[in-house]
């Protein structure tokens, strides 16, 4: 019964998403323009062109150029960005009375949350994979910068990349779905989303190397979950020896602990918010 309820609720969320093609296309076009315009125009690697080649490699942590460094970071940020708006659907379901019907059905609150999170994670993984494919494809188009892979990605490396995306998507989807269960107003939800979005981006190494940040921001960036997931991706796409203090497995272990802690708190908060009043 539990498994069937989980699959049914997850399928319902995915069908509702598929039936909004405009939102899907818009969600894909936003990172596409980041890759096509921002990534092509903003190239801080040119400032290092007069120095020794090793200087650029150190600054970009093994990436051959800034575009490769930036596009790898954008993949993980898109995974995060895709999770930010999922909780809004929960608030809409509450307004329509759908959540109230679920709470009187023989389905546990944890399953209700898990279905929302699972559907959200699938969306995040899809968008992240599309951005990665676009960045790799740009490398083969004349006149465009693209994501240049300088290391042979092993099957285990591909698994590491996939797990880093899953952990990041699961953690933040859980957070924002839970926020959707706790809040009653869509306006309040989007206010929180906008408050979280940019600080998470700019306090990570998605756009800028850690070496050019002030000391206090470097400390924050090292602990940012986005940075941890990006490190896993970059270390597998570019030779990581000497550019990172830890191997990908260490970053994955930290991400796993973070994700489990967040999921546990989210389940507790959701159960409390859906308790009968």
Protein model, in words:
It is built from twelve helices and no strands. α4 packs across α11, α7 crosses α8 (155-182) and α8 runs parallel beside α12 (248-273). The model is unreliable at 49-53 (pLDDT under 50). 74% of the residues lie in helices and 0% in strands. With 277 residues, it is an all-alpha fold. The protein has one domain (2-273). The radius of gyration is 20 Å and the shape is globular.
Keywords:
277 residues, mainly alpha, globular
How much is the radius of gyration in Å? 20 Å
Oligomerization state = single chain
Mean pLDDT: 85
Shape: globular
Largest sheet: none
Q: How many strands?
A: 0
Q: Helix share of residues?
A: over 70%
Topology:
Elements lengths: L1 H17 L2 H21 L11 H7 L6 H19 L1 H10 L2 H7 L4 H30 L16 H28 L3 H17 L12 H9 L1 H13 L10 H26 L4
